[in-house]
Amino acid sequence: MKVAAQNKALDAPRENRLQVVISVVDDLLDTQYHHHLAQDDLVLVWCASIAEVVQSVGTFAYDVAVLDVSSEPEPLESIRLIKNRSPRTSLIVLNTTPDSVDVIEAFRLGIHDYLIKPVNTETLGWSIRRANRSLQAIQPEIGSDWAVFQTVHEIKISDNAERMQALVREQVGKLVMGEGSLWLGSESLNALEAQKEEAVRRFAEKHPKLLEEAFESERANHPETWFEGGLGWIPLREMWMGGLFLWGVGPVSAAVLSRVEFLVRSLEISLESHRRYLEAKKLTFIDDVTHLHNARYLSIVTHQLVVSQKRFAVLFIDVDKFKGVNDKHGHLVGSALLVQMARILKNDLRPSDTVFRYGGDEFIAILHDQTREEAVEVAERLRQGVEKKRFLACGVEVRITISVGVALFPDDGASENAIVDSADKAMYQVKVSGRNSVFSFRNEKN
């Protein structure tokens, strides 16, 4: 049973203690978290449901919210409501078998972490402390600074890392009334040297190692935020992010510095969420068995090619009698066979061409700027290579063949669906004609 410790927890001295609200569905995990997360640096508030969390965040200023969405019918809506009511609260989401689209959208909405249950207490505790690390020391009076919070809101909803950095750079420049600033990293170093050689020289004198290593040093070697002699340096704490270098800066008060820190630490969180979003998005386009691109990505590629009206060929490749392999040797052998097949197809094509696992034992290859004759020749080379190959999968030797259908855009189909369908029909003609061959869609029509 959940504990309603809300008022008691929030009456505790705040100091540097993290205010954490938790809603967990699993009673066993709930009990474990109650016992192991009761640390001196955490003030824990337990809610019986996410609906209670949504109501609570409008009243209390939590640093972190832990949400178990495994039984939530509309988890994304709950996340959206919490972020709207309390943008500063870092969200950690727990789930059992998440949908990849929901994961991507959750990161886009600004969550800090997405953990798969069961989650041990050490992992959850680490995630809680890490989520709050960047914003823990922000001064309360910043809440009245509308321009700062407006910028933070804009970077949180942006899906472009460069725009996030540009927004923060602009607002920081206004706060410190500097002459200029640049995000400084290995790629922007030369640009800065060209624009402000004197500023770079003075910066290099103060922190020579930082410039020598082109901002690729370990995080511990990065200097802290400082303003001195008209110069300023605000590091982003993840070593791959770099930092903001300013020149022509006037005196910086503690209140201004607090706002600057808030902006930059908010940017850190948004950049990290954006990086995770891109990683999650990439995973939705990768087949988890063969590590080729999947059918979802195929539709994007073919759509782009059709829109650009670029000539390309589609090879529809089907492994002959693959079901018999699975039935005789088992699915582990079948999966290992598909991995080897993917490797052969990928290695035998040009780097500019792309192979996809379409589904089951079907593969599709996109050949750029090919004539029909050239595409048929490539298909035949692939067919012969597979026929001669001795596949060794999980200690079992297997011999297989493939059937390949060839279609050309725009001759055999004017849309992404039509061209793939034409290649599929050509492949089917190989199947009904005895398998282990190559067939072109034009031949099929004739």
Summarize the structure.
With 446 residues, the chain is of the alpha/beta class. The protein has helices at residues 6-11, 27-36, 50-57, 75-85, 100-108, 121-133, 146-157, 161-176, 189-195, 197-206, 208-212, 254-283, 295-308, 322-329, 331-347, 372-388, 416-432, 441-445; strands spanning 18-23, 42-46, 64-68, 90-95, 113-116, 180-184, 226-228, 231-235, 243-247, 293-294, 312-319, 354-359, 362-368, 391-393, 396-398, 402-409, 438-440.
Topology (SSEs and partners):
Elements: H1 6-11, E1 18-23, H2 27-36, E2 42-46, H3 50-57, E3 64-68, H4 75-85, E4 90-95, H5 100-108, E5 113-116, H6 121-133, H7 146-157, H8 161-176, E6 180-184, H9 189-195, H10 197-206, H11 208-212, E7 226-228, E8 231-235, E9 243-247, H12 254-283, E10 293-294, H13 295-308, E11 312-319, H14 322-329, H15 331-347, E12 354-359, E13 362-368, H16 372-388, E14 391-393, E15 396-398, E16 402-409, H17 416-432, E17 438-440, H18 441-445
Parallel strand pairs: 1-2, 1-3, 3-4, 4-5, 10-12, 16-17
Antiparallel strand pairs: 6-9, 7-8, 8-9, 11-13, 11-16, 12-13, 14-15
Helix pairs in contact: 3-4, 5-12, 7-8, 7-12, 8-12, 9-10, 14-15
Protein described:
The chain has 446 residues and is α/β, with parallel strands linked by helices. The protein folds into 3 domains: 6-133, 3-Layer(aba) Sandwich (Rossmann fold); 140-281, Beta-Lactamase (2-Layer Sandwich); 293-445, Alpha-Beta Plaits, CATH 3.30.70.270. The chain contains 18 helices and 17 strands. The protein has helices at residues 6-11, 27-36, 50-57, 75-85, 100-108, 121-133, 146-157, 161-176, 189-195, 197-206, 208-212, 254-283, 295-308, 322-329, 331-347, 372-388, 416-432, 441-445; strands spanning 18-23, 42-46, 64-68, 90-95, 113-116, 180-184, 226-228, 231-235, 243-247, 293-294, 312-319, 354-359, 362-368, 391-393, 396-398, 402-409, 438-440. The chain has a 6-stranded mixed β-sheet with strand order 10-12-13-11-16-17, with helices on both faces. A 5-stranded parallel β-sheet has the order 2-1-3-4-5, sandwiched between helices. It has a 4-stranded antiparallel β-sheet with strand order 6-9-8-7, with helices on both faces. Helix 2 links the parallel strand 1 (18-23) and strand 2 (42-46). The chain is globular, with a radius of gyration of 28 Å.
